Amino acid sequence: MKWVNILIFAVLASLAFSAQAQTSNYREVGDYTIFYDVLPTTFLEPQLAQAYGLTRSRGMGLLRITVMKKDDGGNLLPVEQPRVAGQVGNLAGQINPLSFREVEVGQGDGYSTISSFRYSHDTPLRFNLRVTYQSGQPAEELHFIRRLYIE
Length: 151
Hints:
Layout: H1 2-15, E1 25-29, E2 32-40, H2 46-51, E3 60-70, E4 76-78, E5 83-90, E6 95-97, E7 101-104, E8 111-118, E9 125-132, E10 140-146
Signal peptide: 1-21
Keywords: Signal
Domain DUF4426: 28-151
């Protein structure tokens, strides 16, 4: 099962650099880095989608959040169980809440918080997220717009 997790991590990591995956973005907050990306679920290999309980479908998107913390040596280490809440909507004001869950990527190699959502071809999507990466600290707010395309 470990090789499957490593494969999943490699595939998800490579998707972050795909042109169709829009762009992988990040925000640095002190010693923490919050990575976020959006992509169509059709980019996922069938085995990967099944492993994470995701539906591969035209018009279905995936939002992935990964939080890493810099250690004293400058290495980025995965943060387990950040709390993520938020919504996605169109520019006309129609809003849908996102339901997040954490998935382990490899055994001890990292964690991502994911949510799936529906989208229409070439429609701008506004994401409003709150990421709590450290207990007792205020949530970091992320706001961004992405377009996804149905092929």
